Amino acid sequence: NAGVTQTPKFQVLKTGQSMTLQCAQDMNHNSMYWYRQDPGMGLRLIYYSASEGTTDKGEVPNGYNVSRLNKREFSLRLESAAPSQTSVYFCARGGPLGELFFGEGSRLTVL
Amino acid sequence: GESVGLHLPTLSVQEGDNSIINCAYSNSASDYFIWYKQESGKGPQFIIDIRSNMDKRQGQRVTVLLNKTVKHLSLQIAATQPGDSAVYFCAVSGTYKYIFGTGTRLKVLA
User: Fold this and answer.
1) Cα(B6)–Cα(B68) distance, rounded to whole angstroms?
2) Within an 8 Å CB–CB cutoff, is residue B43 touching chain A?
3) Alpha carbon distance A101, A41 (integer Å)
């Protein structure tokens, strides 16, 4: 158990709709991350938060916003969904050695 | 730019045999490496890690080997079992925290 809970697990949106993916950790670690996973590609970092109150862009931040609500929660928002954002999204928390522990994923389809 | 590649998209092994999954990276400054296992429909699961000051690390039935000279690491799974069937990928420290490989699908044949 990685101690990371993501909701929802599945979501279908129409182009232009907005939604928020929720992530919560129960391990009280400082750093949290949002990744997307697409076929034939490795996981790519969207945004991360090194500690409560801070967020930074990753490799593919365009079209997304994040909020580090408190130490436990880190949400990812799509303001105007596009078909290119169809993907599986993973939230992760950091570990004591710098390793990452992932949630079970949120599968998003944008029509 | 930075890149991480795996040598084989699919690896099939007989149950009970040893499996070796490879990963190559480009950034010589990378100093931390992790192997993950991902089962279908699930999130990546941490298996084992290694830092650049080591060239070998062992866990339970798994061994990671790091060759910094040629920028290559491998994951060895001893006595492969059906429950080992999954996609395995490496993560290499880089600019955006980690660079992830695309994965090797391990199929265990009965």
Assistant:
1) 16
2) yes
3) 19
Tell me the HSE value of B14 on the side-chain side, using a 13 A CA sphere: 2
**What does the alpha-carbon distance between residue A73 and residue A19 come to, in Å, rounded to a whole number?**
16
pLDDT along chain B (110 residues), means of 10: 81 97 94 96 96 96 97 97 96 86 94
CA dist., res. B54 & res. B63, Å (int): 12
User: Which residues of B are less than 8 Å from A41 in CB distance?
Assistant: 102
| pLDDT higher than threshold 70 for residue A1 | no
Q: What pLDDT does residue A21 have?
A: 98
Using alpha carbons, select from B39, B19, B23, B16 the residue that is nearest to residue B86: B39
Judged by CB atoms closer than 8 Å, whether chains meet at A48 and B42 is answered as no
Q: Do B4 and A100 touch (CB under 8 A)?
A: no
Nearest to B101 by CA among B35, B11, B41: B35
